[in-house]
Amino acid sequence: MFTYYPRQMVAHPILLEARQISSNQILMTYDKPTDLASATNVSNYWIRSNMGPVGIASVGMKEALTAENAIRPDMGMIAPVDNSKMRFVITFRVNAMQGVMYTVLPCFVNLEGMSGFMGENWGPNSKNMFIGM
Fold it and tell me: Superkingdom, according to UniProt (predicted)?
């Protein structure tokens, strides 16, 4: 007889929305307060595009997310918008390309006061796609 034990889910923040607010900036909103060190580590983010790694994108549609194709510090930076620990802006050194579909993919962002989360920070209800303007 086989007994199913559900995988233990580690509590973690989920990206609610990512939207472009200027030619080189994306506003991100999480559902819960985050650990600032992990939320502002640019290497914990990937931007996927339907045109491959162009403009602000670090990875193409079919590529796996790896440490090598994460956003690098020479590509952009992340800063909190307010004291909520839930809203952040990524500012890139280059502009998003008009008409290109982008998807923001954060990983390893921990809840406030926690560490060690090693998964994805988006879910089926995340509004993490936008068309470059």
Answer: Bacteria
Alpha helices in 1-133 (DSSP H): 36-39
Domains and CATH numbers, the chain: 15-112 (2.60.40.1220)
pLDDT (tens, 9 = 90+) of the chain, 133 residues, equals 555 444 456 789 999 999 999 999 999 999 999 999 999 999 999 999 998 888 899 999 889 999 999 999 999 999 999 999 999 999 999 999 999 999 999 999 999 999 999 999 999 999 999 999 9
Q: Write the CA distances from 3 to 6, 86, integer angstroms.
A: 10, 38
What are the φ and ψ backbone dihedral angles of 115, each rounded to 5 degrees?
-155, 165
CA distance 22 to 53: 19
Identify the sign of the CA torsion 61, 73, 28, 111. positive
pTM value?
0.91
Q: Identity (one letter) of the amino acid at 69?
A: N
